[in-house]
Amino acid sequence: MLILVAAPSYGYDRAQVEADAALIAAYEEENKIFKDLEFKEEPTAFQWYLFYTLQAADVYSTYRGLQYDCVREANPLLGERPGIARMVTHKTVFLSPLWMLQNEGVWTMEELRFVNTVGTVVVINNYRVWNEARKRCKLR
After folding, report:
1. Is residue 37 part of a domain?
2. Is residue 129 in some structural domain?
3. CA-CA to 40 of 20 to 30 Å: which in 1, 11, 111, 118?
4. How many domains does the chain have?
5. How does pLDDT run across 75-96, given as a tens digit for each residue?
6. What is the 3-state secondary structure of 19-61?
7. Whole-model pTM?
């Protein structure tokens, strides 16, 4: 009974409500802080596991290849014959931004796919060099 008394006498104007909703939506869209931001797919957990596995495989295959006298490290920041500690430190320093921003939505699936592809090529090359060195070179 109280509702009937408090209700306006002119009734419900659906067209006005829809027009107001459109104005509110336009206002919210115009005043968004990050309106030009495009959201892309975040990397999957598998891609991150693959990334870290490739980094470990890179250190391992580099270390094994450097056991031969004809192999030297190609990265000038590491020197010709870096040890495991130096390679792990190098990876930690240079890859820590990826690790720190892993769950922040900064990296996209495509970007990590590219990084993993490059990492895969590096590891394949390391194993190729190591295999050739086993055939042609002497152990230290």
Report:
1. no
2. yes
3. 118
4. 1
5. 999 999 999 999 999 999 998 8
6. HHHHHHHHHHHHCCCCCCCCCCCCCCHHHHHHHHHHHHHHHHH
7. 0.69
